[in-house]
């Protein structure tokens, strides 16, 4: 027994037995009734001033020391449990029931009163919604819950389409350079309208001597230049540009049927990347430099968005031109075979040679026997002697 | 010396088309069943055109065939020719014309003992090639050495296009042999049925020839009769009507030498059919005539002095007289005599020997070889007239030949 408890024990025993009679501590423990084991914790259970109060009074030197009545936080867990289990037996302590217990009792009385006035519902109208526990998973999806990936869901695999993505990105970044707009704003419009895409597709890129992106675009016509400049001013200027805002005015006036047609056509177009265009018209964009870090980041961001391919950081660091980026993605799509046999079997140069034969598997002595025609003789001999079935 | 009569045009057409009726040695092929995958097309019967289009090659038939099916075939299927690296390498190594397809080259590697179907073995090609080779060789020999004795011509022909030479050529070309023929075998390997080990291939003499009184072994066989009855090497040959011989060959197998020779002849025939006569002649000159043959080693005189005197008598020369030109060490252990044979004022030959008789004999041999090995300048063979725009033919000098003692 810890010294502090022994101290308490001494106090409790003084209440029960006379002080004159000496009883040893072991006998005092055994002679005590069992429930009293818990009473040692019930500091507030007796009317007598507890030792803590007395210590406080002694410290302050007055019968009414300032501060809380019980500075140790009220009842402990065991005391409360003990009190709840035996409320009737501890009749003397029922006055000390705290406020919470009384409230709980009042609630249960109110429930009992409501149960008497219960009427079963005949229809669902007016009934409160039951079963909803207030978790986020029970809430219906809100607008912010929807997720649209930054990149394409399906990666572009054909080389022509990769070139298309790189070309479009290069033209857009060059346009933003020309307009002095923030470069990465082009990523806000995931997919342009077909007419806009066609104009972008027709644009050529002729990189200058010093590798400037701003003068690189060669427009197919004046009208296309005007339209593209207008569109990209909108894209760069608007804080939240809508998808295909160039058709927004027309769409407002359109009737229901035309909306449907637009939807259908959009769905159809979305199935085909780049509206079915297969390859770029010129290859001038491939030699555009990626020296400027901001331009490189903007280009690669847009290129990743359009093509669906991530570029790892070490690769990004080593890229110097647009063509290298396209080449990297293309080579990542068609990795070199790990086995030499696969590489040899797929090599066009060897397959075109008539006097070279590449076998898919290792040639064993049995293959040599078959080629010479003696395998069947060997097998027949083995079979006749019962060595093989 | 009479050359064997050759009818190339008729024979080549018979190789081109299995339906064409021919006589003689190709008679036996007519009654074989046709197999589907033949390299030759029966529809193409352009008899006057030695080259034909390989239309069957333009539309290859892709028949899915299991490996088990290949085991049932006696020789590799036609489609396998394109798959074989050995075959393409052989084609390139021989510098064969590109008009000769790999399929035909593969067919020329299949002996009749491996595949008895004449549409798939090289027998017809080899027949054509054999006759082309003997034709070109004999006209070359006769025009280049118009006075050669017949035995020497036989020996020279054997040395140029005999089976031993041809098998050595096949070996030099790097043609390997399959152990056992079959459909699964690489088509670049020479396929034939081998004779059983220990078989004596020359055990029995050739029987069934066209020579009358064949059963009389003791009768002398004259050289002139060999021209008529024997083959171009002077060896007895079976009659063409005798069909029992190939059957026994197919069951018993053939020697590697025979199969190799047949392959080389078939290549010659295939070149003639696919690439034409000029290419065939070029191939002959590059692969056969380019082989060095010392003609003077082929002679074997038993009595050269007598032959020389008969020759001089026939040619109306003065009788030959042997005279000592010089001598040294007559009394020593190793005397040397140099003897010349003179006909009047002309010295016919000269020889050195350890005795007077030996020296005279050598001088006579030298005189005879000098006579027999006469070769005119600017030799033209009769087949040179087959080319377009050839110069007018001037008859070549062909001598009476050897002296008959």
TrEMBL record, chain A:
Biased composition, class Acidic residues, residue ranges: 93-110
Biased composition (Basic and acidic residues): 83-92
Database matches in InterPro entries: Ribosomal_m50
Key words, A-Z: Mitochondrion, Ribonucleoprotein, Ribosomal protein
Region ranges (Disordered): 83-118
Pfam families associated with the record: Ribosomal_L50 (PF10501)
Compartments in which it is found: Mitochondrion
Any single Gene Ontology cellular-component annotation: ribonucleoprotein complex
Entry's family note: Belongs to the mitochondrion-specific ribosomal protein mL50 family.
Protein name as annotated: Large ribosomal subunit protein mL50
Species in which this protein is naturally found: Aspergillus bertholletiae
Source species taxonomy: Eukaryota, Fungi, Dikarya, Ascomycota, Pezizomycotina
UniProtKB/TrEMBL annotation, chain B:
InterPro entries registered for this protein in UniProt: dsRBD_dom (IPR014720), Ribosomal_mL44_DSRM_fung (IPR044443), Ribosomal_mL44_DSRM_metazoa (IPR044444), RNase_III_dom (IPR000999), RNase_III_sf (IPR036389)
GO terms for biological process, alphabetical: RNA processing
GO terms under cellular component: mitochondrion
Compartments it resides in: Mitochondrion
The RNase III domain, residue ranges: 87-175
Residues covered by region (Disordered): 200-223
GO molecular function, a single term: ribonuclease III activity
Entry keywords, A to Z: Mitochondrion, Ribonucleoprotein, Ribosomal protein, RNA-binding
Protein family (similarity comment): Belongs to the ribonuclease III family. Mitochondrion-specific ribosomal protein mL44 subfamily.
Record's protein name: Large ribosomal subunit protein mL44
Lineage: Eukaryota, Fungi, Dikarya, Ascomycota, Pezizomycotina
């Amino acid at each position: 027994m810890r010294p502090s408890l022994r101290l308490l024990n001494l106090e409790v025993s003084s209440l029960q037995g006379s002080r004159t009679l000496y009883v040893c501590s072991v006998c005092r423990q055994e002679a005590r009734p069992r429930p009293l084991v818990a009473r040692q914790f019930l500091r507030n259970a007796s009317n007598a001033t507890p030792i803590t109060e007395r210590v406080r009074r002694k410290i302050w030197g007055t019968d009414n020391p300032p501060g809380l009545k019980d500075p140790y936080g009220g009842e402990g867990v065991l005391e409360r449990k003990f009190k709840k289990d035996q409320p009737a037996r501890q009749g003397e302590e029922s006055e000390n029931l705290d406020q919470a217990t009384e409230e709980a009792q009042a609630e249960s009385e109110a429930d009992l009163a409501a149960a008497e006035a219960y009427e079963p519902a005949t229809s669902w109208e007016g009934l409160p919604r039951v079963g909803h526990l207030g978790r986020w998973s029970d809430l219906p999806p809100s607008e912010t819950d929807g997720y649209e990936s930054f990149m394409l869901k399906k990666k572009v695999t054909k080389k022509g389409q990769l070139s298309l993505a790189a070309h479009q990105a290069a033209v857009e970044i060059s346009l933003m350079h020309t307009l002095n707009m923030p470069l990465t704003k082009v990523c806000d419009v995931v997919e342009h309208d077909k007419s806009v895409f066609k104009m972008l597709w027709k644009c050529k890129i002729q990189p200058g001597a010093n590798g400037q992106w701003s003068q690189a675009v060669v427009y197919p016509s004046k009208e296309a230049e005007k339209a593209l400049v207008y569109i990209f001013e909108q894209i760069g200027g608007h804080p939240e540009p809508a998808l295909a805002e160039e058709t927004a005015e027309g769409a407002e006036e359109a009737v229901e049927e035309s909306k449907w047609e637009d939807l259908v056509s959009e769905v159809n177009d979305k199935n085909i990347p780049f509206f079915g265009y297969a390859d770029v018209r010129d290859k001038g964009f491939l030699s555009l430099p990626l020296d400027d870090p901001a331009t490189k980041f903007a280009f690669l961001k847009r290129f990743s968005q359009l093509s669906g391919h991530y570029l790892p950081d070490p690769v990004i660091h080593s890229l110097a031109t647009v063509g290298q980026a396209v080449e990297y993605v293309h080579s990542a799509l068609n990795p070199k075979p790990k086995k030499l046999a696969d590489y040899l079997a797929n090599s066009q140069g060897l397959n075109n040679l008539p006097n070279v034969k590449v076998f898919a598997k290792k040639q064993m002595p049995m293959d040599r026997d078959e080629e010479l025609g003696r395998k069947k003789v060997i097998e027949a001999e083995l079979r006749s002697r019962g060595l093989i079935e | 010396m009479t050359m064997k009569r050759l009818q190339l045009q008729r024979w080549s057409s018979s190789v081109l088309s299995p339906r064409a009726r021919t006589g003689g040695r190709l008679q036996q092929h007519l009654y074989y069943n046709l197999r589907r995958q033949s390299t030759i097309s029966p529809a193409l019967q352009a008899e006057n055109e030695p080259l034909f289009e390989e239309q069957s090659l333009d539309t290859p038939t892709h028949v899915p065939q299991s490996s088990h099916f290949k085991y049932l075939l006696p020789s590799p299927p036609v489609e396998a020719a394109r798959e074989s690296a050995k075959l393409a390498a052989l084609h390139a190594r021989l510098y064969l014309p590109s008009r000769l397809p790999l399929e035909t080259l593969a067919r020329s590697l299949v002996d009749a003992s491996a595949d008895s179907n004449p549409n798939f073995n090289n027998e017809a090609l080899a027949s054509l090639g054999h006759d082309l080779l003997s034709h070109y060789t004999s006209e070359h020999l006769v025009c280049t050495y118009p006075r050669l004795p017949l035995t020497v011509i036989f020996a020279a022909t054997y040395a140029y296009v005999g089976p031993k030479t041809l098998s050595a050529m096949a070996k030099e070309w790097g043609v390997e042999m399959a152990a056992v023929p079959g459909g699964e075998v690489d088509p670049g390997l020479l396929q034939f049925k081998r004779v059983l080990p220990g078989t004596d291939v020359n055990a029995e003499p050739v029987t069934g020839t066209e020579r009358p009184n064949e059963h009389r072994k003791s009768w002398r066989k004259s050289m002139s009769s060999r021209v008529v009855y024997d083959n171009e090497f002077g060896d007895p040959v079976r009659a063409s009507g005798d069909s029992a011989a190939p059957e026994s060959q197919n069951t018993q197998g053939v020697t590697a030498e025979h199969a190799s020779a047949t392959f080389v002849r078939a290549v010659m025939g295939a070149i003639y059919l696919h690439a034409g006569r000029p290419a065939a002649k070029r191939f002959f000159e590059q692969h056969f005539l380019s082989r060095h043959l010392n003609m003077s080693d082929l002679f074997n005189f038993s009595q050269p002095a007598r032959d020389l005197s008969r020759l001089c008598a026939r040619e109306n020369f003065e009788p030959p007289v042997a005279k000592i030109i010089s001598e040294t060490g007559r009394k020593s252990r190793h005397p040397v005599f140099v003897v010349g044979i003179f006909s009047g004022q002309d010295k016919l030959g000269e020889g050195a020997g350890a005795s007077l008789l030996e020296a005279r004999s050598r001088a006579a041999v030298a005189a005879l070889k000098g006579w027999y090995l006469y070769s005119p300048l600017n030799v033209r063979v009769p087949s040179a007239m087959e080319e377009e725009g050839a110069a007018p033919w001037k008859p070549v000098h062909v001598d009476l030949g050897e002296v008959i003692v």
